[in-house]
Design a protein that fits this description.
- The chain is α/β, with parallel strands linked by helices.
- It has a single domain, classed as 3-Layer(aba) Sandwich (Rossmann fold), CATH 3.40.50.2020.
- Helices cover 21% and strands 34% of the residues.
- Strands 5-4-3-6-7-8 form a 6-stranded mixed beta sheet, with helices on both faces. The chain has a 4-stranded antiparallel beta sheet with strand order 1-2-10-9.
- Helix 1 packs across helix 2.
- The longest helix has 18 residues.
- The model has no long low-confidence stretch (mean pLDDT 94).
- It binds inosinic acid and magnesium ion (MG).
- Inosinic acid binds next to strand 4, strand 6, helix 3 and strand 9.
Protein backbone atom coordinates (compact mmCIF):
# COMPACT_ATOMS: atom_id res chain seq x y z
CA UNK A 1 0.00 0.00 0.00
CA UNK A 2 1.48 3.34 -1.04
CA UNK A 3 1.14 6.15 1.45
CA UNK A 4 1.91 9.86 1.42
CA UNK A 5 2.10 12.43 4.15
CA UNK A 6 0.12 15.67 3.83
CA UNK A 7 2.46 18.66 3.88
CA UNK A 8 1.87 22.36 4.48
CA UNK A 9 -1.90 22.15 4.72
CA UNK A 10 -2.92 23.58 8.09
CA UNK A 11 -4.76 21.16 10.35
CA UNK A 12 -4.35 18.35 7.82
CA UNK A 13 -0.56 18.50 7.93
CA UNK A 14 0.95 15.18 8.94
CA UNK A 15 -2.09 13.08 7.99
CA UNK A 16 -1.22 9.90 6.15
CA UNK A 17 -3.06 9.19 2.91
CA UNK A 18 -3.37 5.66 1.53
CA UNK A 19 -3.55 5.03 -2.20
CA UNK A 20 -6.71 3.00 -2.85
CA UNK A 21 -6.85 3.06 -6.67
CA UNK A 22 -3.66 3.33 -8.69
CA UNK A 23 -3.47 5.00 -12.09
CA UNK A 24 -3.42 1.56 -13.75
CA UNK A 25 -6.47 0.31 -11.87
CA UNK A 26 -8.40 3.49 -12.67
CA UNK A 27 -7.43 3.32 -16.35
CA UNK A 28 -8.55 -0.32 -16.61
CA UNK A 29 -11.93 0.45 -15.04
CA UNK A 30 -12.43 3.55 -17.18
CA UNK A 31 -11.74 1.37 -20.24
CA UNK A 32 -14.47 -1.06 -19.15
CA UNK A 33 -16.97 1.74 -18.58
CA UNK A 34 -16.10 3.27 -21.97
CA UNK A 35 -16.63 -0.08 -23.66
CA UNK A 36 -20.01 -0.51 -21.96
CA UNK A 37 -21.12 3.02 -22.85
CA UNK A 38 -19.95 2.62 -26.46
CA UNK A 39 -22.05 -0.53 -26.77
CA UNK A 40 -25.10 0.96 -25.07
CA UNK A 41 -24.97 4.11 -27.23
CA UNK A 42 -24.01 2.49 -30.53
CA UNK A 43 -25.32 4.57 -33.44
CA UNK A 44 -26.03 7.58 -31.18
CA UNK A 45 -24.00 10.66 -30.29
CA UNK A 46 -24.42 11.32 -26.56
CA UNK A 47 -23.55 14.60 -24.87
CA UNK A 48 -21.38 14.04 -21.81
CA UNK A 49 -22.08 16.66 -19.17
CA UNK A 50 -19.14 16.86 -16.81
CA UNK A 51 -19.74 18.15 -13.30
CA UNK A 52 -17.04 20.69 -12.51
CA UNK A 53 -14.48 20.57 -11.11
CA UNK A 54 -14.13 17.01 -9.87
CA UNK A 55 -15.06 15.11 -13.03
CA UNK A 56 -12.54 16.65 -15.43
CA UNK A 57 -9.99 13.80 -15.45
CA UNK A 58 -12.66 11.11 -15.48
CA UNK A 59 -14.56 12.81 -18.30
CA UNK A 60 -11.47 13.35 -20.43
CA UNK A 61 -10.16 9.80 -19.93
CA UNK A 62 -13.60 8.30 -20.53
CA UNK A 63 -14.31 10.37 -23.65
CA UNK A 64 -10.95 9.43 -25.20
CA UNK A 65 -11.75 5.74 -24.77
CA UNK A 66 -15.23 5.82 -26.32
CA UNK A 67 -15.42 4.17 -29.72
CA UNK A 68 -18.52 6.24 -30.61
CA UNK A 69 -18.74 9.97 -31.34
CA UNK A 70 -19.71 12.19 -28.44
CA UNK A 71 -19.96 15.84 -27.53
CA UNK A 72 -19.35 17.38 -24.15
CA UNK A 73 -20.24 20.31 -21.98
CA UNK A 74 -20.00 21.21 -18.30
CA UNK A 75 -22.17 22.18 -15.36
CA UNK A 76 -20.99 23.42 -11.98
CA UNK A 77 -22.79 23.04 -8.68
CA UNK A 78 -21.81 23.46 -5.09
CA UNK A 79 -22.92 21.19 -2.31
CA UNK A 80 -19.96 21.35 0.06
CA UNK A 81 -19.14 24.73 1.58
CA UNK A 82 -15.71 23.69 2.77
CA UNK A 83 -13.94 20.79 4.35
CA UNK A 84 -15.85 17.56 4.11
CA UNK A 85 -19.24 18.52 5.47
CA UNK A 86 -22.11 18.72 3.04
CA UNK A 87 -24.30 21.78 3.36
CA UNK A 88 -27.32 19.69 2.39
CA UNK A 89 -28.39 22.16 -0.27
CA UNK A 90 -27.17 22.21 -3.85
CA UNK A 91 -26.64 25.45 -5.75
CA UNK A 92 -26.18 25.84 -9.49
CA UNK A 93 -22.98 27.84 -10.11
CA UNK A 94 -22.66 27.39 -13.88
CA UNK A 95 -25.30 25.99 -16.21
CA UNK A 96 -24.73 24.02 -19.40
CA UNK A 97 -24.42 26.07 -22.56
CA UNK A 98 -25.45 23.52 -25.18
CA UNK A 99 -28.96 22.52 -26.27
CA UNK A 100 -29.83 19.08 -24.95
CA UNK A 101 -33.48 18.87 -25.97
CA UNK A 102 -34.05 15.54 -27.75
CA UNK A 103 -30.45 14.51 -27.14
CA UNK A 104 -28.98 11.59 -25.19
CA UNK A 105 -27.25 12.96 -22.12
CA UNK A 106 -24.75 11.23 -19.84
CA UNK A 107 -24.02 13.15 -16.64
CA UNK A 108 -20.41 12.49 -15.62
CA UNK A 109 -19.56 12.91 -11.94
CA UNK A 110 -16.58 12.09 -9.76
CA UNK A 111 -18.38 10.67 -6.74
CA UNK A 112 -21.86 10.10 -5.33
CA UNK A 113 -21.95 10.50 -1.56
CA UNK A 114 -25.38 11.42 -0.12
CA UNK A 115 -26.85 11.44 -3.64
CA UNK A 116 -28.28 14.97 -3.21
CA UNK A 117 -26.08 16.45 -5.93
CA UNK A 118 -26.84 13.62 -8.34
CA UNK A 119 -30.57 13.99 -7.82
CA UNK A 120 -30.39 17.77 -8.28
CA UNK A 121 -28.40 17.38 -11.49
CA UNK A 122 -30.71 14.79 -12.96
CA UNK A 123 -33.77 16.98 -12.31
CA UNK A 124 -32.01 20.01 -13.73
CA UNK A 125 -31.08 18.17 -16.93
CA UNK A 126 -34.57 16.63 -17.28
CA UNK A 127 -36.09 20.15 -17.31
CA UNK A 128 -34.57 20.58 -20.78
CA UNK A 129 -36.36 17.52 -22.15
CA UNK A 130 -33.50 15.40 -23.39
CA UNK A 131 -34.45 12.12 -25.05
CA UNK A 132 -32.57 10.22 -22.34
CA UNK A 133 -30.40 10.84 -19.27
CA UNK A 134 -28.03 8.42 -17.60
CA UNK A 135 -25.50 8.96 -14.85
CA UNK A 136 -21.85 7.87 -14.84
CA UNK A 137 -19.95 8.26 -11.59
CA UNK A 138 -16.42 7.06 -11.08
CA UNK A 139 -17.09 6.43 -7.39
CA UNK A 140 -20.09 5.68 -5.20
CA UNK A 141 -20.27 5.50 -1.40
CA UNK A 142 -23.29 3.20 -0.94
CA UNK A 143 -23.29 3.55 2.87
CA UNK A 144 -23.67 7.32 2.60
CA UNK A 145 -26.67 7.49 0.26
CA UNK A 146 -29.49 9.47 1.87
CA UNK A 147 -31.94 8.79 -0.94
CA UNK A 148 -32.51 6.17 -3.59
CA UNK A 149 -30.40 6.98 -6.62
CA UNK A 150 -29.42 4.51 -9.30
CA UNK A 151 -26.43 5.48 -11.39
CA UNK A 152 -26.22 3.49 -14.62
CA UNK A 153 -22.41 3.47 -14.72
CA UNK A 154 -20.29 3.27 -11.56
CA UNK A 155 -16.53 2.75 -11.51
CA UNK A 156 -15.98 1.67 -7.93
CA UNK A 157 -18.10 1.32 -4.80
CA UNK A 158 -16.10 2.66 -1.87
CA UNK A 159 -16.34 2.65 1.91
CA UNK A 160 -17.13 5.83 3.80
CA UNK A 161 -13.70 7.48 3.80
CA UNK A 162 -12.79 10.89 2.46
CA UNK A 163 -11.05 10.51 -0.89
CA UNK A 164 -8.82 12.83 -2.88
CA UNK A 165 -6.97 12.76 -6.20
CA UNK A 166 -7.92 12.13 -9.84
CA UNK A 167 -10.13 15.24 -9.67
CA UNK A 168 -11.35 14.86 -6.08
CA UNK A 169 -10.32 17.61 -3.69
CA UNK A 170 -10.23 18.67 -0.10
CA UNK A 171 -10.68 22.46 -0.09
CA UNK A 172 -9.46 22.53 -3.74
CA UNK A 173 -6.24 20.68 -2.94
CA UNK A 174 -5.06 17.25 -4.20
CA UNK A 175 -7.15 17.28 -7.40
CA UNK A 176 -4.07 16.87 -9.55
CA UNK A 177 -2.88 13.62 -7.95
CA UNK A 178 -3.07 11.01 -10.73
CA UNK A 179 -4.43 8.25 -8.47
CA UNK A 180 -7.06 8.09 -5.70
CA UNK A 181 -6.06 8.41 -2.04
CA UNK A 182 -8.04 7.99 1.19
CA UNK A 183 -7.79 9.88 4.45
CA UNK A 184 -7.67 7.67 7.54
CA UNK A 185 -10.92 6.00 8.60
CA UNK A 186 -13.00 7.74 11.25
CA UNK A 187 -10.84 10.81 10.94
CA UNK A 188 -12.56 13.99 12.02
CA UNK A 189 -11.62 16.19 9.05
P1 LIG B 1 -23.37 14.38 -2.47
O1 LIG B 1 -24.31 15.44 -2.92
O2 LIG B 1 -23.37 14.23 -0.96
O3 LIG B 1 -23.60 13.05 -3.16
O4 LIG B 1 -21.92 14.87 -2.76
C1 LIG B 1 -21.39 14.84 -4.03
C2 LIG B 1 -20.23 15.78 -4.13
O5 LIG B 1 -19.53 15.91 -2.88
C3 LIG B 1 -19.24 15.23 -5.11
O6 LIG B 1 -19.51 15.75 -6.38
C4 LIG B 1 -17.92 15.72 -4.56
O7 LIG B 1 -17.64 16.99 -5.09
C5 LIG B 1 -18.14 15.85 -3.08
N1 LIG B 1 -17.61 14.68 -2.35
C6 LIG B 1 -18.29 13.69 -1.76
N2 LIG B 1 -17.49 12.78 -1.19
C7 LIG B 1 -16.23 13.20 -1.44
C8 LIG B 1 -14.92 12.65 -1.12
O8 LIG B 1 -14.74 11.60 -0.48
N3 LIG B 1 -13.87 13.39 -1.56
C9 LIG B 1 -14.01 14.53 -2.27
N4 LIG B 1 -15.20 15.06 -2.60
C10 LIG B 1 -16.30 14.40 -2.18
MG1 LIG C 1 -18.13 16.96 -7.51
Amino acid sequence: MRTRVVENFGKYTGQILEEIYSEEVIAARVDELAKQISEDYAGRVPILIGVLNGSVFFLSDLAKKLSIDCEFDFIKVSSYHSGTQSSGTVRLLKDISCIITDRDVIIVEDIIDSGLTARFLKHRILENQPSSVTFASLLLKPECLKLKFDAEYVGFEVADRFLVGYGLDLDQKFRNLPSIWAFPENMNL
